[in-house]
Amino acid sequence: MLAAILLSFKIYEIYQPTILKNFGFLRLAGWLGIVQGLLSLVIEPIAGRFSDVILRRFSSRLPQITIGVTLAGLIFIGVAWLLQTVYLSQLPWLIPTLMLGWLIAMIAIRGPVVSMLKELAPVRELPRANALLVLALGLVAAVNPLLEVALKQVGASFGFILGAIVLLGGGVLLFKSAPQRIPLPPVTVYRSPWVWSRLLLVFLVGVGVNLGLTAAMTTIPRALQVQFGQSPIEWIVAGMYLVAAVSALPWGKVVGRWGAIMSIRASLGTFIPITGLVLLNQFPVMAILFMAIAGVNLSLLLTSTIPFAIANVPVSQAGLSVGLFLGGGGLAGAIAAWGLGAEQNFNLWTGLLWVTLSFLLTTLCIWLAERFKRA
Question: In terms of CB atoms within 10 Å, which end of the chain has fewer, N or C?
Fold first, then answer.
C-alpha cells in the first residue's frame, strides 16, 4: 500500500506543475512545495486523530483508508478523462481544484496506513516492521529516474489512469491482507501532561528530523554532482536510496537493540560529518564511498523515526502521533521549499548549517521528551 501511495505521489509531482503552467497557473506551480507542506501540517494531525476515532468505533482504520483510496483513485480517473476533453479550456480552474482534492485525500490516508504498524506488530518488533516500509520507499525512490522517463513518454492521461489502478490495487491488497477488526484494550482517556507534552515533542522532532533530512539530501547530492563530473542529481539520489533500501532490514534489527531515540541521534549526528567531508572531498573515487555511507545513514534515520512516533503512545493515539510527526515533516518541507529550493545557486555550506541546527533541535526535543517521561 505504501508503495502505491509513493508511486501515486510521484505521478502527481511529475504532471501537476506542467498542467498548472499550461493552464496559466504559473505562480501556483512555483508554490507547490510550500502549499503541499502546509496542507500536510494541517491535515495530517486531523486525519490521524480521526483515524483513532474510527479505530475505536470499528476496531479498524480500514474504513477511512478505503474511502480515501477510492476517492483519490476516482479523482485520478476524472482528471485523465478531463485532459482528453474539449471542455477543459472553458473551465481551467477545474484541474487544480480536483488535484487539490486528490492531495487532501492522499494526505488523509498516509498517516493511518503508517500507524497500522502499531496494531500489527508488537513494540519490540516495530523497527523491523518499519524496515519493510523503508525497503519499499527506497526501491520506489531508486527507480525514480527511470519511472519519470517512462511516465513522461506515456503522457498525463495514461499516467493518471496508471496511478488510479496502482492505488486502488494497493487498497484492495491491504483490505484483504489486514485484519478487519483488531482486539483493543479498554478505552482509556489519556489526558496526563506527559502524554500531551510528548505528542507536542513528537511534532517538533518531526520538524527537526525532516528538516535535517531534507537539508542533507539537498546538500550531499549537489556536492557529489560536481565530484562525479556533473552527473544528474536524480541518479545520485536514486543511488543513495538504493543503498538505503538494501540496508533497511539489517538496520531494523539494530534499531530494535539500540532503541529509536539513540538511532535518531546517531543518524542525524552522523549526517553532520558526512556532509562536511563530502563538501571537502576532491577525489571522485571517495565520492562513491561517501554516497554509499550517506545511503546507509539515511536508512538508519528512516528506520527509526516511525517507531519513535508510535512506540510509547497507546494504540488509541497512534494515528494522532503519526499525524503530528508527518505534520511536522510537512512544516519542514514548506520551510525547506522556501529556504533550500528557492535559490538556484544554493550555498552548500549553508546546507551543512541547516543539518547541524536540525540535529540540535531534535536532540533538545528528545531530551525534553525523556525528562517528561521520567517526571
Answer: C
pLDDT in tens, 103-161: 898 888 999 998 888 888 888 888 999 999 999 999 989 998 888 888 888 888 888 88
* Domain covering 2-177: architecture: Up-down Bundle (1.20)
% of the chain with per-residue pLDDT over 90:
29
Amino acid occupying residue 221 = P
Q: Is the pLDDT of residue 79 over 90?
A: no
**Cα 74 from Cα 68, distance rounded (Å):** 10
| 194 pLDDT above the threshold of 60 | no
For cell 489512469, what's the residue?
161
| Cα distances (angstroms) measured from residue 217 to each of 62, 291, 354, 361 | 33, 11, 11, 18
Q: Which three cell numbers stand for residue 44?
A: 495530517
DSSP secondary structure of 325-375: HHHHHHHHHHHHHHHTSS-TT--HHHHHHHHHHHHHHHHHHHHHHHHHHH-
Question: What's the CATH number for 193-370?
Answer: 1.20.1250.20
The SS3 assignment for 205 reads helix
Q: Tell me the CA end-to-end span of the chain in Å, nearest whole number.
A: 39
Q: Are 210 and 329 in contact (CB under 8 A)?
A: yes
Residue 347 has pLDDT above 70, yes or no: yes
Q: Are 315 and 119 spatial neighbours (Cβ–Cβ below 8 Å)?
A: yes
Residues constituting the chain: 375
Sequence-separated (6 or more) residues with CB below 8 Å from residue 148: 10, 14, 234
Domain with CATH 1.20.1250.20 in the chain: 193-370
CA-to-CA dists, residue 308 to 180, 198, 243, 329, 333, angstroms: 26, 11, 23, 14, 20
**Looking at this protein, which amino acid is placed at residue 77?**
I
State the pTM of this model: 0.88
